[in-house]
Amino acid sequence: MSERTNGHDDRLRVVVAGTAFGRIYLDAVLSDPAFSLAGILARGGDFSRECAARHDVPLFTSVDEVPGDVHLACVVVSSGALGGPGSMLAQDFLRRGIHVLQEHPVHAEEIADCLRAARAGGAAYAVNTLYPRLRPVRQFLAAARALRLEFADAACNSQVAYPLLDILGRLAGTLRPWRFGDVAKGSGPFQSLHAEIGGLPVTLRVQNQVHPDDPDNHSHLLHRITTGGEAGVLALADTHGPVLWSPRLHAPRDRTGRLIMTGSAMPSTVMLGDPPGTHRDVFATLWPDAVARSLHSLRRDIADPARRARSGQWALGVSLAWRDLTSRIGLPELIDPPEPQAIPIEELTTKVGEV
Description:
35% of the residues lie in helices and 22% in strands.
């Protein structure tokens, strides 16, 4: 399907399906001049009605109600991987020739069905793993391209293991071949195993735990990745930054064989890119910006069938690798911890100042 335009307006008209995490997609669409919000698809609850009224757009309760001048649908409804109808909604849109950006995770079989529906409707389809397009992650991956990588060490919560594999594939330059070893026996909240992603040796640690009534909380971390080689170690301290570079400590020897300990003036660790912001910045800026980048990537796919094919194959690879990883680590342990108690920054800085 060619890009349709609304009069002289060359913006893509977008419908967002889902108003939970879909709020991030709404912010992305509303803040980017390349797109215009054409409506919201939801079940019709009070929050969804209020959301549509606030943005002065129609509320649809079925794909059939969405008008034919809509170009693109963001499906931010749980897929079959989480017991939801998201992939069925995506296929309904695609068969109508409406391009789809679907929020992860999505089973490989569902992706294959969506790709078939996309071909039938002449539309473009992509799975949005979000996190690889966050600015700190992009800065980390950009810096890594200057290195000859020999290893990676990565940690995540199982809720975000799917995008971690996408990030590691981009880090290695390819997903295939991938391999996951056996989970090491041990105690504590993390499971450990060795892996290879695109030939890059990886040590994985996964907090395979979930609060069944509050699955979006109680992660010790989202993503933490360290990689490097002979020049030093590059670290993504957190999904939202900062990126740290630690040149390798290497001291030459004098004629007697003793280390020359004068060293260089280079700092032992340097922060690259942007300093980390607040959690408010994450929700208001970083995540909507990442969604907008995914929308622009899909827009390029719309105009280039070869890109569509590559995007589809990559999405299938990420999902298949995720399936293999989850088969190794098994079902998450169900936990019921209390709400975490925050530690004031001042208390930490005081302790540090006492040293």
